[in-house]
Amino acid sequence: MTPILHALVVEDDSSWQQILSEILSDSGLEVDVAGSVEEAAQLLKLQPHRLAVVDLSLTPNDHNNYDGLRVLDAVRRLDPNCQTILLTGFATVELAVTALTDYGAFTFLRKESFHRSQFRDIISRILASAPPMTAPISESSKSIERNAAASQKEVVEHALVVEDDAGWRSILEELLVDAGFTVRACSSFGDAMGYLRREKFSLAVIDLSLSRAAAYSAAPEPDGYQLLSSSYMAGIPTIVVSGIASAEEIQRIYSEHSISAFIEKQSFDRAVFSRVVGEARASHPHLSKLSTLTEREREVLDLLALGLTNKEIAEKLFITANTVKRHLKAIFEKLEVHTRSAATAFATGG
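Below the sequence we write its predicted structure tokens.
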């Protein structure tokens, strides 16, 4: 008998409660609904949920209410195997990034640009993925994992494509697959940030001008620029493929975000794109070693690169200092380095 999977909707607007519940039910989920942090906490304690859709503001028309973040925190504590989707009508990019990075949200969606098909696709991806691993992994399992990785003759390289035009997205994905990459393709800032948080990439291809709801049209920069900052901080070589930008702007993008290349759509050439991809890959050989790290090892390395001590890393990740030492030993072996500064250079692309 197939187990019943539960979903939680935390939303104070009855219309949105109905819309979200309907789509979740159509996806085969049993839906619980809460309108406040307290109601959500009670439902989280009653039974596990596969996913939760959480509105950022749980007070009508109050743009300063961030109760949804409290719900995300409660999910992490009470139901850690539950994946969360943040839904918002007015969040800034900074708040959305906070939800993804600090509160572990799977992705976020804007109400102004909400599409049922996109929401169904996200639900399908969550249901198809394995729940987050919350139990500690045994040393024997780690050994098996390392041996399996060592036995692979080639490291699979992953590329992220962020492009809101389906035609261009298909072209870029096809060329990258031909170049030997496994490709994650998406059309929105929220999906892209979710992928960047959850996965490791050897290359990113980003369109600067992603679709944006009218309410956000007055924002100082399009979402693509925010993604450039994120890929730069993650040390991912990035190619911009875009139809908008003046010569001065292109120069600024090269300077501020250290991109590998800027290709204008008006003069796009498949052969040129493939050559640029090869050059970007060749200029960052250290990334193939980084891709051998486990998710936890990469978290340790990122905190090490920020200058944190073993004790501080342990406190951040809720693990022991001895566990941090074991992770660092594995990291040094995989990266073939012997010092913390050398490992930091890998993390920062130095």
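Residues 151-287 form a domain with the Rossmann fold fold (CATH 3.40.50.2300).
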